[in-house]
Amino acid sequence: MAVVSVLTLSSSGEAQARPVTLEAVSQDSAPGNLTDLRREAERSSQALAEATKALEQRQATLAKADSELKKKLDQFRTATAELSKVRKPLADLVQSLYQTPQGGDMAPFLSGASDTSSLRALSDMTYLVSGRDEILADVGRLYQEQQRLAAEAQDLRATKLLVEAQLNLEIDTLRKRSAAVVKSLSQALVKLGVRVNQGGRSGAACDPTRVGSAAQYPNGLLPKSVLCPLQQPGRELRADAAIAFVAMNEAYRKRFGKPMCVTDSYRSLAQQQSIFYRRPGFAAVPGRSNHGLGLAVDLCGGVDVFRSLQFNWVEANGKQFGWIHPDWAYHSPFEPWHWEYDPELGSLL
């Protein structure tokens, strides 16, 4: 088991370490461990999605904070310029008096006279010097504030880079882990006789973490790229349903000494239409069948005989793999051969 420490930001903006635990991936998983492998692959995929989302949220939050700081710096620069502009006449006058003390209203005072005009001049000089000192003090305060904000912005940028680096490392680790789990799952399926690359499709068709892409297609119009082959030639289902069926098939084989007999699995829209018109009352309206979603099979070999030993076994054990005999199939229409995969039930296994 490995632990990765990922930096996150608290509400106050401080960086904090968040430990992420990663379970080791077995490269030689037993073929009968398909349910565990599927569950581990799904957990890896979910963790990867959450880490990616966290990175995107962190980037958005930091970008907003960075923008606010830049705005503040711009405001302070504008305020400094405005202050200088307003007080420039006073500063210029003080500078002029220092450069030409013999001229202007300050001449009596600067020449040593002590009459009323000299006292007035002294008062004016004191006022001007005070004004100049205020200008310098204000500018100094603004400069210090600018320096503080600039340092804060720099720290934020540094933290942003560090957080992004840590999150990218986590995402890369999770991506490799997810790929390793899916590879182990594919190898386990191949050992059990599933030709994951059958029909020129890639092994991704049996990747349970990509079932969301299958849900994007209309009923009966799923492409080969999202349909995983079964051990039974010519039969295929959506990845999660296929993996669960293969696991159930192995349990069935151990019990009865032979694999399950399958007469039908995924049905295209054209096949649904054909069956609907050939067997009225025994097929769903085209485009509404679970066969068209790659989530249903029709079984034979004894399972199709109500209350046979084989039927009872699948009924009693199917739920352990996410497979059920729907309520309607018990009576309306009566179809003991029809079984469906329940994704919600399967996700709990």
TrEMBL record:
Superkingdom of origin: Bacteria
Keyword line: Coiled coil
UniProt keyword Transport, yes or no: no
SUPFAM superfamilies reported for this sequence: Hedgehog/DD-peptidase (SSF55166)
Matches recorded under Gene3D superfamilies: 3.30.1380.10
Molecular function via GO: peptidase activity
Keyword Hydrolase: no
Ranges in coiled-coil conformation: 34-75
One Pfam short name: VanY
A GO BP annotation: proteolysis
Annotated D-alanyl-D-alanine carboxypeptidase-like core domain residues: 236-343
Entry-linked PANTHER family: D-ALANYL-D-ALANINE CARBOXYPEPTIDASE (PTHR34385), PEPTIDOGLYCAN L-ALANYL-D-GLUTAMATE ENDOPEPTIDASE CWLK (PTHR34385:SF1)
Protein name: Peptidase M15
Origin species: Sphaerisporangium album
